[in-house]
Specification:
With 105 residues, the protein is mainly alpha-helical. It has a domain of 66 residues. It is 62% helix and 0% strand. Helix 3 crosses helix 4. The N and C termini lie far apart (60 Å). 7% of the residues are buried.
């Protein structure tokens, strides 16, 4: 079996968009004008869903790589997870998250 623990966490061959988003979110040298935008993105429900989904894909990548004995890569794990598990994962997240209803007053 391949020892994937020696790999640096969070390092993968993701799409250019996700890589640039990760770099922008972790860059402590962002300009002052970007602080408000960065805060909005970090606290956005879309970004939180992206991070949760990415964690599931990375978990799937690790499991499948262990089964096969070699690193399958992020792109293959992404496609495999999306085709096999994404719909069920999203449905279970929707069912487990509380629904927020605002008051009418």
């Amino acid at each position: 079996m391949v020892n994937l623990r020696s790999r640096v966490p969070g390092r993968h061959s993701a799409s250019p968009f996700s890589r640039s988003l990760d770099v922008k979110m972790k860059n402590p040298d962002t300009k002052k004008t970007d602080d408000g935008c960065q805060f909005v993105v970090e606290h956005s429900s879309y970004y939180k869903e992206y991070l949760a989904e990415r964690e599931e894909i990375l978990r799937h990548k690790w499991i499948e790589s262990q089964k096969l004995g070699y690193d399958i890569g992020f792109d293959r794990a992404l496609m495999d997870w999306t085709l096999k598990y994404r719909d069920g994962w999203r449905a279970s997240r929707r069912n487990s998250q509380p629904c927020v209803v605002s008051g009418g007053n």
